[in-house]
Amino acid sequence: MSLQEEIARHRTFAIISHPDAGKTTLTEKLLLFGGAIHVAGAVKSNKIKKTATSDWMEIEKQRGISVATSVMGFNYGDYKINILDTPGHQDFAEDTYRTLTAVDSVIIVVDVAKGVEQQTRKLMEVCRMRNTPVIIFVNKLDREGRDPFDILDELENELKIAVRPLSWPINIGAKFKGVYNIYEQGLDLFKPDKQKVTERIEIDDVNDPAIDQAVGEADASKLREDLELIEGVYPEFDVDAYLRGEVAPVFFGSALNTFGVKELLDCFVKIAPSPRPTQAEERKIEPQEDAFTGFVFKIHANMDPNHRSCIAFVKVCSGKFERNANYKHVRSGKMMRFAAPTAFMAQKKSVVDEAYPGDIVGIPDTGNFKIGDTLTSGENLHFKGLPSFSPEMFKYIENTDPMKSKQLEKGIQQLMDEGVAQLFVNQFNGRKIIGTVGQLQFEVIQYRLLHEYGAQCRWEPISLYKACWIESDDAAALDAFKKRKHQFMAIDRDGRDVFLADSNYVLQMAQADFPAIRFHFTSEF
Ligand code: G4P
Questions:
Q1: In the chain, what are the domains?
Q2: 16, 17, 18, 20, best to mutate for ligand 1 pocket (most atoms within 8 Å of CB)
Q3: How many angstroms separate the Cα of 408 from the Cα of each of 32, 306, 402, 417, 452?
Q4: What angle do CA 372, 499, 424 make, to 5 degrees?
Q5: CB of 143 closer than 6 A to ligand 1?
Q6: Ligand 1 pocket, residue 22 CB under 6 Å
Q7: Nearest C-alpha to atom 20 of ligand 1 is from which residue?
Q8: pLDDT by residue for the chain (525 residues), tens digit each?
Q9: Which ranges of 203-257 would DSSP assign to H, the alpha helix?
Q10: CB-side exposure of 298: number of CA atoms within 13 Å?
Q11: pTM of the model
């Protein structure tokens, strides 16, 4: 198969949702259709159960499982599908943001009873920043939930994206009878079944009497009314608008009952984008370029303390990746060869000889890689688009064993390279501040520093609201700001100026008092 053909058949995406909406269940059903697994229940949830937040080893075990399920590749018809898994626990949201930089599209799962929840809103913001095409799956139609029209309104308002239903439910909850496939004009009747695919009734169009026979006259005419309303309210589905991230097609179903999932998948492979161009600082890289390029979007540490090694996850952006070929690690300028790169098919990892744009390659690493690193066939390129967001929680990190300060230093550096959290150094007192999205990350860091580096640390409170990256075209204004706020100025790992605002009020005052300064809440601007 030519490079062009390989690219055309690749679909690399992530499923995102608020915990419990059904991401794991939907992933499993997609694997079932792809023949990658044969029975439901085979995919272990990498969800970190809420009850286990203080039980560290339990979390580690669960994170261990997630290495295997980090990327799930399978063939579906002529398509090669790669699902990139994202951590369910919101304390690891930063991991999810980065994974979103490696996908070409996204499926969002929403619980029909709960509607749009907080985590979904936040992840959608990231998709919007990157114009990532989004398909929405409204799940759990077998349960009582909200009116589908209400859900559509809420999706539109809360996720700030136009929506277009491509399937439509006939009742929900106990009376749920099926889904009409608007995209392909078909009717699927609901038969709860966790293993099998529901059979479809072939119809000519929505006026086919077969529908009345199947669901009864009352429900059939309600369906026709609903569809008429949909056609009146929502413009015809425009694939290009979807690809530009302007409109999200919506499907309804029940992942647990394998219902509405095939419609979703069949439509997904047809409309979802194949690997898209990637923007580097220097230029835009097209996937069909012959020369290989890729970037590291995730580093997963082996949790065995006696065997410190990592897997760096590389997304292939262009050309063909080949085992044992010489590639340039742009940050160090070194040429590297990878003798045992792995591919992720189904739930197995195996050594791979070649990989194509859209594929994810796992490279065993002993500390050479950093999140965001670029690999190329020789060209000096730096991929953009791996922003850090302002952390939500901050703590001073202090050494508690003076004999181990080197180990602590090294541990902090490496964990930050992996993207576990963010480090800021306060310019006023020289103290190190770690910023995270959630409490759990502090526990992860303390545990790993001790077990992998033999270093002990303790946390000291610091009351901060946000970290903002600041810049200005006016050097004098920047200087004046830094002087005025000198107690709250820090630098990030790349030496950039960061203002640590201790409250929203202080931040707003600073923005008002210093109009020449630009305040950014992500590290990429
Ligand atoms: P997540 O990865 O998004 O966190 O969600 P997950 O798939 O683990 O699903 C959360 C819960 O919702 C699970 O129940 C799952 O069985 C259930 N679920 C998923 N899809 C549907 C659906 O279409 N209908 C109904 N009624 N339930 C659904 P659980 O009790 O939390 O877990 P489990 O013990 O069943 O695994």
A1: 8-70+88-271 (3.40.50.300), 278-376 (3.40.50.300), 393-520 (3.30.70.3280)
A2: 20
A3: 45, 17, 10, 14, 10
A4: 50
A5: yes
A6: yes
A7: 256
A8: 899 999 999 999 999 988 889 988 898 889 888 876 665 555 554 444 444 344 455 555 555 445 445 788 899 999 999 999 887 666 667 778 888 889 999 999 999 999 998 888 888 988 998 899 999 999 999 999 999 999 999 999 999 999 999 999 999 998 888 889 888 887 877 766 655 555 677 778 888 888 888 888 999 999 999 999 999 999 999 999 999 999 999 999 999 988 888 889 999 999 999 999 999 999 999 999 999 999 999 888 765 555 567 889 999 999 999 999 999 999 999 999 999 998 877 666 788 899 999 999 999 888 889 888 999 999 999 987 667 778 889 999 999 998 999 999 999 988 888 888 899 999 999 999 999 988 888 988 898 899 888 999 999 999 999 999 999 999 999 999 999 999 999 999 889 999 999 999 999 999 999 999 999 988 766
A9: 209-215, 217-233, 239-243
A10: 26
A11: 0.84
139 CB near ligand 1 (under 6 Å): yes
How many Å apart are CA 228 and CA 427, to the nearest integer? 63
Q: Give the single-character DSSP code of 65.
A: H
Tell whether ligand 1 has an atom less than 6 A from the beta carbon of residue 19: yes
